[in-house]
Every structure is written in structure tokens, then in C-alpha cells.
Amino acid sequence: MRVVIAEDLTLLRDGLTRLLEAFDFEVVEAVDNGPALLPALLRHRPDVAIVDVRLPPTQTDEGLKAAIAARAEIPGLPVLVLSQHVEPLYARELLTDHAGGVGYLLKERVADVEQFVGAVNQVAAGGTAFDPEVVAQLLARREPLAGLTAREHDVLRHIAEGRSNAAIASRLFITEKVVSKHINNIFAKLGMPPSDDDNRRVLAVLMFLDA
Amino acid sequence: MTVARRFRTGLSAIADGLFAIGLALLNPAVLALWLVGLALSPIPALGPELLGVTTTVVRWRADLERRLSTRAGVPIRRPYSPRPDGAEVGSRERLIWVITDPATWRDASWLVPGALVGAGLGLITVVLTAYGLIGVLLVPLWLFLGGVWFGYGLFWPTADLGEAWLALPQGVAILAAGLVVAPLLRATQVRFARLFLAPTRSAELRLRVAHLTVTRADAIDAQAAELRRIERDLHDGAQARMVSVGMTIGLAERLVRRDPAAALKLLAEARAASTTALVELRHLVRGIHPPVLAERGLEGAVQALAMSLPIRTDVTSHLAGRLDTPVESAVYFAVAEALANMGRHSNAQSAWVVLRHADGMLFVQVGDDGDGGADPDRGTGLRGMERRLDAFDGTVAVSSPPGGPTVVTMELPCVLSSPKI
Predict the structure, then answer these.
(1) B46-71 and B92-100 are packed helices; what angle lies between their axes, rounded to 10 degrees?
(2) Same domain, B24 and B118
(3) Contact B243/A12, CB-based, under 8 Å?
(4) What confidence tens digit (pLDDT) does each residue in B117-154 have?
(5) What is the least distance, in Å, from the CA of B251 to any CA of chain A?
(6) Of B78, B87, B95, which is closest to residue B38 (Cα–Cα)?
(7) Which residue of B has its CA nearest to A55?
(8) Residues B21, B163 share a domain
(9) Which residue among B246, B248, B251 places its CB closest to the CB of A108?
(10) How many angstroms separate the CA of residue A51 from the nearest CA in chain B?
(11) Model ipTM value
């Protein structure tokens, strides 16, 4: 799988590259500043981009802006945004194009290597991977989705955070079959007609996060 | 006061008196010029410009008097209200600014009375001194001019050389009186000038408000910049390092069964990175508020700072208590800045710091034995020190003649809190 990395701190850029290569990703380019990012994304059209929010020269949100611009050019270009702090506002901005293939994680999540790589794969496959902290902050301000049971809510939260059915099953100590049943119930309750499963997962997450 | 000192003060007061006579002659001309400017000010275009120029002349004259007064030991501050934005030379705004400033009228009204007092008192000083001088020199003059003399002091006319000799003690007495009286007359003249030229109470308050507005904005700017720096340092430093530590440990975890040697190497790497992160945090904390400053106060913190410098630095401190925390911090960083600048630019072999507190003022001097020639107008170091101390009404003065030494003097009003146990 081909990856473009944008991270200005050498330490983390090299670390990410090493980590991803250990999991057989191919890092096609690793840029260290904002202006170089958009051209790199358009040129390589990677399977997934891993982007730091804050990049030189302005040290503001150049990375996020470039990622959103790239997704405007290439709809659905999978982008996983990393940052040292999470801001629900940025998550909203990433979700506004209503396409899947987005993620937004705290940088420290890379320490759980397996789970991080899982999140990268989810995003690359068109799913979502939102940091539990972002999800918690987005949900804190509003009512839970009407009609969902507490368990269904939990399942949906795990989907938003980028977990596969198998990962959710092991987290909640239930079988994958039960997870699928919950998910089908969620789709039904949210009024989603049967269609491509991946697409429905993304839509459910968007509704869930009120994008 | 020692005799020599009294003599010097007397002499300089006499010189000032002489100078005052000269300046007094100038005043009527300055006033006439200004009145002409005032009379012509309604004329469009030319008027406002002319009044601007003539007012500048008046202010120059008044400022000269203020400087002389300050030198004579009676400081007089400039009373003028600050120039409003857009008051360009010749504009209506400038005209209004000049005319509505009471200081303009007070300056003008001082010119003639000031001249009379200055000339009168100056004349007394000069005449008294001159007469004393003649008494002292009477005998040589007598011999030189061949006895053509009318009289001196008590002897009138002076009959012979014997009586001429008696002029000497009289002359000495009069000269001594002149030297004693001159500073008193000078002080009287200066106090008179202060009545007109010092800021009125409301002008003083206005100036104070203007000063506070500037220093408050400066203080807030400085603080915001400081916070931004801290955020950046954390983001790019310790925080990033901890992320990297986590990542390295994560990789090691994965490798530990398959390739224990490689995992071990990664763990060592992680340990080293976590140590570096701690070092960075420590440096950052020291830049925010040095722990030794919290624990030992200004005195201890400056001593600790001195020990960490590459050049030998002696610290002499006479502080009988702790200062308020904000003052302590401002002074500490100002001293650190001064020492850092010396270390960078002066080629000094050694430096010294003196801390003293008396009469509600903290007095700090930082000096070195380096090359000198530091220009306070250049470089941001001094500006930084000023900005730190300005918020507490402190002042910074730099003396740095070419060839050295450089001495930075800081003063600020503050109280010592709890006395040292």
C-alpha cells in the first residue's frame, strides 16, 4: 500500500516511516512542510496519506488545509490526520465532504502499533478512524441518537474510532456475529436501505458524529 | 559638604548664573516670535505651519531650561500632551493640539518673568563674584595701574598701598559669600521656573495614563509572545519526543518475540529519548520560572545564574527579604539578559552584579570588564530589559564607553516582603 507522510519533525517523520515499513507499507514520499504536501498528494495519489495538522512555514493548520484541498481535487482520497491535540472543529471540517476515508488521531496513538496500523487500513479502505477523544468531545454536547440501545451506541462509537468487526467483538467480549447483528440494527434504526456495507458504515458514523 | 565640594558647586552655580543672563536676553525675542506666529495663525496654509515652528522654538527654549534645572538638582518633567495620530506638520489637528495644550501657554507666560528672575538673580551672583575678585586682585592692579583707585569695601577712597592690602581679606570674604550664595540664588531661579514649566497635576496624570497605556500593551504583548514560545517549545520538543518514545516502544513490543535483540535496541533508544525529553522539559521550566528563583528568591537565583556562566561573575547582594514574585521574575530575567549580552558581545573576563534595596527602591547594577561600546539603541537586549521593568515603573540605564567597562543600572520601586529569617 502506498503512503505519503507529511510531518515536520524529523524524529517523528523517520519514526512513522520506519513503523509503516515494518508493516509492509510503501512510503512513496515524506514531506516536511505545507506547500509541498498538496502537489505530492496530487502527484502520487497515494492509497492513504498521513498528515500532521501543524506544518511549516506558518506552523498553524497548513496540513489540515492541504488535506481538505486534496480531497476536493480527488474526492475520497484517504487521509489520516495526526495532531498532538484534538479539536472537534477540525474533525467537522474533515467530515464536511460526506465521503469516507478520513481519520483524525492523537499522535500518541501510534504507540499502540497494531491498532494504529489498523486505523490506517480502515481509512485506506474508505472507513473512518476518529480519536476516542474527538468522539467523546463531539458527543458530549448532544443527545444520543434516538432509538439506539446503549450497546448499539458502543458499537457505533467503535466503528467511528476505526475498528473492524473482529476488533469490536474482542473489545466488547461478544462474537463477530453479534456485532454484525448490532450493526444491522443500527442501519435499520437510522433508516438506511440495504446497500454497500462500507458506505453504510461511513454514513452511520457521519450521522453519529452529527457532521 | 566638604569645602572642595562646596567650592565646585559654587563655581558651577556662578557659571550657570552667567549663562542664565545670556539666556534671559534670548527670551523676549522668543516670545515676540511666538506672538507673531500666534497672530498670523488664522491665515490658511501658512498660519498653522508658522505657529508650529515658533512653538517648537518656545519648547526648545523651555526644554533647555528643564535640562538645566534637572542638572541643578530640581528635575522638571516635560508636560506636553502626546501628539495625536494624524497631526502632521501644518495640519489643523496639529494646530488644535498645540493651542489646547495648557503647557504651550504656560511656557509662553514663563518667558518674560523667567527672564527677569534669571537675569536678576544671575546678575547678583555675577556682580558679587566680580567684586570679590577685584578685592583679591586690588594690590596687583594698584601696582600695575599706578595707584589710580577710588576705593574698595570699607575704605573709600583707598588712600595708600597699605589700605589697598586690606582689600584682600574683604575680597576673599565677598568671594566666599558669592560662592555660598550662588547655589541658593540658582535654586531659587530654578524653583521659579518649575512653577511654570513643570506639568500641572492634570498634565501629570495625563502623562501617567499615556505611559501606563504603552507599558500595559507592551507587557501583554511580551506575555503573549512568551506563552506562544512555550507552546511551541512543548509541541516540538518534549511532546514530540514522548510520541516518538511511545512509537519506539510499540515497535519493540511487536518485535520482542520474533527478534529480541532488535527489540532491546529499540527499548534503549526509547529510554534515551525519554531522558532527552526530560532535559528539554527542565530547560523549558527554567525559562518560564527558574525553580531556584521560587526556592531562594532573587538573590539565590542570581547567584545560581552567575555560577552557570562561562565568565567569573561576582554577586554582591544586600537584600533583607523577598520581593514580590512578579518583580523578582522580571528583575531576574533582566539581569539574565544583561549578563547574556555581556557574555556575547563584550569579550569580558569577569562580570559583577550588585543588588541593593533602600527607601522603597530596588537598585541593580550589572557590570563587566569588557570592551564597552554597547549601543543601547541597537539590539533587542536592552529593549527587552526595559520592557520587563517598565511594567513595574522601573528604569534601565546603560553606560558603555568605547574601551569599557559596561555597566547596566536598573532601578525600580518595590517593597521587600517578609524579612529574611
Answers:
(1) 40
(2) yes
(3) yes
(4) 988 999 999 888 888 888 888 777 777 777 666 777 77
(5) 6
(6) B95
(7) B236
(8) yes
(9) B246
(10) 15
(11) 0.78
CB contact under 8 Å between B250 and A112, yes or no, is yes
Contact between A11 and B240 using a beta-carbon 8 Å cutoff:
yes
| Structural domains of chain A ordered from first start | 2-131 (3.40.50.2300), 142-208 (1.10.10.10)
Do residues B43 and B69 both lie within one domain? Answer: yes
Instruction: Write the pLDDT tens digit of every residue in B158-180.
Output: 667 777 777 788 888 888 888 88
C-alpha B197/C-alpha B67 separation (Å) is: 11
With cell 532573587, the residue in question is B298
- CB-closest option in A15, A54, A113 to B244: A15
Backbone angles phi, psi at A209, to 5 degrees: -90, 0
Q: Which of A18, A22, A110 sits opposite B246 (nearest CB)?
A: A110
- As a whole number of angstroms, the distance between CA B197 and CA B112 comes to 13
DSSP B364: E
* Cβ contacts of A35 within 8 Å, gap of 6 or more: A57, A62
The three grid cell numbers given for residue B205, joined into one nine-digit string: 496624570
B247/A16 CB distance under 8 A: yes
The percent of residues in chain B predicted with pLDDT above 90, rounded, is 17
Does the predicted model carry a pTM greater than 0.90? no
Domain span holding position B225: 203-288
Put simply, the chain B residues between 249 and 308 with a CB less than 8 A from any chain A CB are: 249-251, 253-254, 273
Q: Which of B22, B21, B51 is nearest to B36 (CA)?
A: B51
Give the angle subtended at the CA of B338 by the CAs of B333 and B341, to the nearest 5°: 120
